[in-house]
Write a structure and sequence with these properties.
The protein has 150 residues and is α+β, with helices and mostly antiparallel strands. It has seven helices and six strands; from the N terminus they run H-H-E-E-H-E-E-H-H-H-E-E-H. The protein has a single domain, classed as CBS-domain. The strands form three sheets. It has a two-stranded antiparallel ribbon. Strands 3-4 form a two-stranded antiparallel sheet. The longest helix is centred in the first third of the chain and has 11 residues. The protein is globular and about 65 Å long.
């Protein structure tokens, strides 16, 4: 049974929270990857910046939806969600645009579990963590390679 340690990319390209968005976009395009782990100065994983996070910057500004009940305006979207979307759209650095609710795996996580997590959570890049340290990443391409005959 294949595990994360067998298929992960071990030479990980990382960025830092203060890295500019333009530099992150350049790295994603140059290396044909979907996501970059974001690490602090000590190498601890803080988030992931992916193509989706950068595409978000180009979308329309979200206009809050309301409905009227007895002459009262009731918001359908929380102010916090709107502020978060606007902050991400206006981001200049990776730290302002990255996703922080991460799903990670260990080197011993089985391939089926990784694939299930990717599909269930609609993610393309999964960091591999061992003893609190980033040791690799798995992208959808890494999963697809397992289908190919040796």
């Amino acid at each position: 049974m294949l595990k994360a340690g067998d298929i992960m990319t071990k030479e990980v390209i990382v960025v830092h929270p203060e890295t500019e968005i333009v530099q992150a976009a350049r790295l994603l395009l140059e290396h044909h990857i979907n996501g970059l782990p974001v690490v602090d100065q000590q190498g601890r994983l803080e988030g992931i910046i992916c193509q989706d996070d950068l595409v978000t910057q180009q979308k329309k500004i979200p206009i809050p939806s309301y409905f009227i009940l007895l002459d009262s305006l009731i918001p359908l979207t929380s102010q916090k969600d709107i502020e978060k979307a606007l902050k991400k759209m206006a981001a200049v650095t990776v730290g302002e645009a990255m996703s922080t609710d991460l799903i990670t795996v260990s080197p011993d996580t089985e391939l089926e579990e990784i694939a299930t997590l990717m599909v269930k959570h609609n993610i393309h890049t999964v960091p591999v963590i061992d003893e609190g340290k980033l040791v690799g990443v798995i992208g959808k391409e890494d999963i697809l390679k397992t289908i190919m005959p040796a």
